[in-house]
Amino acid sequence: VAYSAGQFRTVSNYLDRIYAITQIYGIVCSPSPPGATKEEQLLNLGTEFGEKLIDRSPLLSQLFVHSGSSKPNRTWLITQDCKVPWFMAHYRDRINGENTSLCSMKVIKERDQVSFVGACCVLSDLFARPSNSWSPRISMAALDRHVGEHFFGTGEFCGKGSEGVTIYSHGLLESAKVDLKDFWKTYGREHLHFLLLGFYYKAPTVERSYFGLMLARVKGEHSEGELWERIGLMTLLAGEQDFNSNIQLQLCRGRIR
Fold this sequence. Notes:
By secondary structure, the chain is α+β, with helices and mostly antiparallel strands. It has helices spanning 16-25, 38-56, 58-61, 123-127, 145-152, 170-173, 181-187, 242-246; strands spanning 94-95, 98-99, 104-108, 113-122, 137-143, 166-169, 192-200, 208-217, 227-238, 250-256. β3 (104-108) and β4 (113-122) form a beta hairpin. It is globular.
């Protein structure tokens, strides 16, 4: 939230839009980012911050949706043009000293990609579960804007909008308001996965809220494992043991471009 709000911050030093929030995340960035203009320097500094945030916390690095109508060159990289959906604002990488991250990521600078190791499942398996199923069940989802507008137009599908981001709940997905046929057909059900990133809970004994990425497989042959693009975020409600018993999660390794 602090990073995405940086674009509106009034500062005397242009680069302080990013420097001012690095301490929040415990990140140290270059004091002299490359660039012939202050705009280029800010862009390069933002890229450095986004890369270091992935090293700091894969979970925190992905708490955003892209707000532009065009697909970004790096779908994994947070920028100051991104938005944080309201239902993601409470996630932290630690709760009462407990590490809540469930995925590892590493930047591959020479490829402008990130590699990941984590638990995945086929996305359509989650949508196929009835809305009254106890656990796990979809809580909320947000598509990156360029994806949401392509399939569903510019409207929002739930009461609490998020500045141009398509947001919808499981119940609405099952209604006539949102037709997913083109969505599944375009990508292919087998090419859409959910990558589990972490969890949040208010008390250890209650149901947890799990957070992850919706990923679309990049079709074609890739010499170094499967290549993906992120297309949005999703949260699931589940008991701590329900993923293993009710959803077929598999250990996945891949790259996101």
